[in-house]
Write a structure and sequence with these properties.
Layout (H helix, E strand, L loop, with lengths): L2 H9 L6 H12 L5 H14 L3 H12 L15 E5 L7 H10 L5 E4 L10 H5 L11 H11 L1 E4 L7 H12 L6 H14 L4 E8 L8 H17 L3 E8 L7 E2 L1 H12 L7 H19 L7 H13 L2 H12 L5 H4 L9 E6 L4 E6 L1 H11 L15 E4 L6 E2 L4 E7 L2 H8 L2 H4 E4 L9 E7 L1
Parallel strand pairs: 1-4, 2-3, 4-5
Antiparallel strand pairs: 5-13, 6-9, 7-11, 8-10, 8-12, 9-11
The chain binds uracil.
Length: 441
């Protein structure tokens, strides 16, 4: 095969077959095709799109470009979740121990944060000693022994995606549905998932800004996953305002502990969000025989929060992976900030907007996130948001507290405050948590 012929075929709007796509992906992954041909291929896909069959082939070719994790000796059915990334999205920290506390083994590989949204591994690393770099043997052993393990990638999963993604970033070909779907799904397939709950965010703090775009992505991922033989449930959830109130690594761990300890005040939205995602994960894991009734499953999950089982599972995982559980038992021992400032409403009214994007920028400027993979982060900094869209507020009422460790960064962060909140004269409806659910089971 010749790359130029395949590029021309796609350029002219014809569908490529599975052998052609597999050949292109694997030859590029091996380093036997130049970046300029891969870039031309990506642009042809961007402009011409792909059929479902082509996207399935692309997903499987990328998944098979590296290690394929087989967990079948540890878990007979691996259930995974994926979030398209949001501000204050600490869902995994809560949902995974919650699901594991119901007897479903969860062995998940997570990522680090890049840009404005934080990564699960960074949040967990605020806990002294917590190890995210486990060997494959440790990963399997923890899954077997504790029924819960959360680690970084110890494998070379879908390396073709890494190479393609770097090229997409610099060739303006990121926002292409088949390229996004195959990128996300190839990593999940390579990580061994049988059932996947997708949390596709829509809003100013999300990759997809409109509900329609997010729904289209969710539908496409469900379709492709189903075609590959995976059970799929996708929710489209709101990301116009942050999820919960904490944005920043240790602050998000603290808020997760609050939910796991069944506190409700101030975390109602986060708790509700996690209960829904966890119920869907159990639904997949139950495969129609168990946890099929959504309300019964939710009641079980609420009991696991109130009887301490979910928190105990979280604590066990932290301890098993070397983390200092004294920080979990007394979260004041987690990394903190020495400059704390609260900013308040300048007028009476109703909260019309809490911009997830600008709140994320505030936390980022404090040092909670990283621009390049190698940048360090400050685990102790971030913000806590005290108001949600629709809340009535009085002049002088606190809207946000900033936790900083550097005066200059604090000033930079504060500069976003005026864009972060909008207060109107008239009552505003609260934002929904979810816009849609799409499934293929
Ligand atoms: N996340 C991914 O992993 N890949 C994409 O293409 C977009 C978002």
């Amino acid at each position: 095969m010749r790359a130029v012929d395949l590029i021309a075929k796609k350029r002219d709007g014809q569908a490529l077959n599975s052998d052609e796509i597999t050949w292109f992906v694997h030859t590029y992954a091996k380093g036997d095709l130049p970046d300029y041909q891969a870039a031309a291929f990506l642009m042809a896909v961007f402009l011409r799109g792909m059929t479902t069959a082509e996207t399935v082939s692309l997903t499987m070719a990328m998944a098979r470009s590296g290690d394929m994790l087989d967990l079948s000796d540890v878990i007979d059915y691996a259930v995974d979740k994926h979030s398209s990334g949001g501000v204050g999205d600490k869902t995994s920290l809560i949902v995974l121990p919650l699901v594991a506390s119901c007897g479903v083994t969860v062995a998940k590989m997570s990522g680090r944060g890049l840009g404005l949204t934080g990564g699960t591994l960074d949040k967990l690393e605020s806990i002294r000693g917590f190890r995210v770099n486990l060997t494959e043997a440790e990963f399997r052993d923890h899954a077997k022994r504790y029924g819960l393990v959360l680690a970084g990638q110890s494998h070379d999963l879908a390396p073709a995606d890494g190479k393609f993604y770097a090229l997409r970033d610099v060739t303006a070909t990121v926002p292409s549905l088949p390229l996004i779907v195959s990128s996300i799904m190839s990593k999940k397939i390579a990580a061994g998932a049988n059932g996947i709950v997708l949390d596709v965010k829509a809003g100013s703090g999300a990759f997809m800004e409109t509900v329609d775009q997010a729904r289209e992505l969710a539908q496409s991922m469900v379709e492709i996953g189903h075609n590959i033989g995976r059970d799929m449930i996708a929710v489209v959830s709101d990301m116009n305002q942050p999820l919960g109130s904490a944005v920043g690594n240790a602050l998000e761990v603290i808020e997760s502990i609050e939910v796991l300890q069944d506190q409700r005040a101030g975390v109602e939205d986060l708790r509700e969000h996690c209960l829904e995602i966890a119920a869907y994960m159990l639904k997949l894991a139950g495969r129609g025989r168990q946890w099929a009734d959504h309300q019964d499953t939710r009641a079980l999950l609420e009991r696991q929060l109130s009887n301490g089982a979910a928190f105990a599972k979280f604590r066990e995982m932290i301890s098993a992976q070397g983390g200092d559980v004294r920080m979990i038992d007394d979260p004041r021992q987690l990394p903190g900030a020495h400059l704390i400032e609260t900013l308040s409403a300048d007028r009476d009214g109703y909260i019309a907007q809490v911009s997830a994007h600008h709140i994320a920028q505030m936390a980022f400027d404090l040092g909670a996130g990283r621009e390049r993979k190698i940048d360090p982060i400050d685990p102790g900094v971030g913000v806590k948001v005290h108001a949600k869209v629709g809340d009535p507020v009085k002049q002088g009422q606190p809207l946000i507290t900033i936790y900083a460790n550097d005066q200059v960064k604090l000033s930079e962060s504060k500069a976003h405050f005026s864009h972060a909140f909008q207060i109107g004269d008239h009552p505003v409806n609260p934002l929904p948590l979810f816009y849609d659910t799409i499934s293929a089971v």
